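tool_call: predict_structure(chain=1)
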Amino acid sequence: MKFFVDTADVTAIRELNDLGMVDGVTTNPSLILKSGRDIIEVTREICSIVEGPVLAEVVALEAEAMINEGRRLAEIASNIAVKLPLTWDGLKACKVLTGEGKMVNVTLCFSANQALLAAKAGATFISPFIGRLDDIDLDGMDLIHDIRQIYDNYDFETEILAASIRTVNHVTQAALAGSDVMTAPPEVIRKLAMHPLTDAGLAQFMKDWEKTGQKIL
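tool_result:
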């Protein structure tokens, strides 16, 4: 499973990228706001750090304007994937932009039918929002399973990008469900390395090593 990091914080992106933990980056208007930087400037810097797709979102609501914004964003770097909302206008824009050879992520997906439409429109990535479904007492992972089966049934090439990942359990469940990609904030990715038994084992090893009175260097 590919790891995308969900942030516009270039310091966090560099750290995770140096560890080989970044296959791509997802941004959105909220993350751009949090960064406090110009969208073109920060997106260009992120693209210079990461070799994989960098997802940059349009803010227009009508297809023609989405297409124009998508073209502008795609000019930033060759690894830009244009993010479009899963609306009828978003699907229209997806069809045009993918027809021009651009990578497109259709986002804000909450149903298998929406995912099917996005694949038909040629989306490179579809982003089901796991956490937001959980918020309304639906199991977001059920959606991942449904999309995986539909895409496999018909050999769609659209990659499932599990989004709104909030916990380490979400990461495990998305991987088990067959998600091609997951995107999560830096702190969630860091927590994947944590386990209380690892900490306890290390503490015991260090205690025993101290008793030997030895040094390696």
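agent: Residues 124 and 159 are 6 Å apart (CA to CA). Proceeding to next step.
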